[in-house]
Design goal:
The chain has 220 residues and is mostly helical. The protein has 7 helices and no strands. Helix 5 runs antiparallel to helix 6.
Length: 220
């Protein structure tokens, strides 16, 4: 009995452990493990969502020190042009400088200047040359002639037609010279009058003296 049972068991058990059964059993075990694992396994933390980095272009100023070329020195400014005076003022200034330079010279130098001024006036009878002759004549005094001749040189300089204009810078010089000549003439006249008066007094004294002498002679 036991032997036949054993055969029967083998014949029954054999198909149970076939290839298909093993596969199904394996799946069942895996499923069971999976279920049990899901029930007991810890929760897996979710990874943060990957975000692509945002790129931004930043411009950083870069300062580069460039050596500046040394500029060439500027050329010096041109010299200022000389001030151009009107012709009458230029002549007046030159004549005044001449008068100031020569007025303190000696008698010999003044005579030379007077001779040169007279020659220039004889060559060109301008008002300026006339005034130059009159100026040196006034400095020389009687050596250059009398006051009447000097006035003859100066008075035309103040004439309305041929003389200096009222605003001419040399006109005051002619006026001063004429005033000096007139003053000198007045002083000469006064001195002459004083001399004449003195002479008259002397003549009167001489006449009285003569009368007294005549009387004395007649008595004797």
């Amino acid at each position: 009995m036991s032997r036949s049972f054993s055969v029967v068991n083998e014949s029954i058990a054999k198909p149970v452990f076939g290839r298909a059964s093993v596969a199904g059993l394996t799946l069942a075990i895996v499923a069971a493990l999976a279920l049990s694992g899901c029930a007991n396994a810890p929760e897996i933390p979710l990874l943060p969502k990957f975000t692509a980095p945002v790129t931004q272009t930043v411009y950083v100023p870069v300062y580069v020190e460039v050596e500046k070329p040394v500029p060439a020195p500027a050329p010096p400014p041109p010299p200022p042009e000389p001030i151009k005076l009107p012709e009458d003022q230029e002549q007046s200034l030159a004549l005044l400088i001449e008068f100031a330079r020569n007025s303190s010279g000696g008698a010999d130098e003044l005579r030379k200047d007077y001779t040169a001024a007279q020659a220039a006036y004889n060559k060109e009878r301008t008002a300026v040359n006339r005034l130059r002759v009159a100026w040196y004549s006034s400095l020389l005094g009687s050596a250059a002639g009398d006051d009447a001749r000097l006035l003859g040189l100066l008075e035309p300089l103040l004439a309305k037609t041929s003389g200096f204009a009222t605003s001419h810078p040399l006109r005051p010089i002619a006026e001063v010279l004429i005033a000096q000549v007139n003053e000198r003439g007045r002083q000469v006249r006064e001195q002459k009058k004083a001399v004449d008066d003195l002479q008259q007094k002397l003549d009167a004294l001489k006449a009285i003296e003569k009368q007294l002498l005549d009387r004395e002679r007649r008595r004797n």
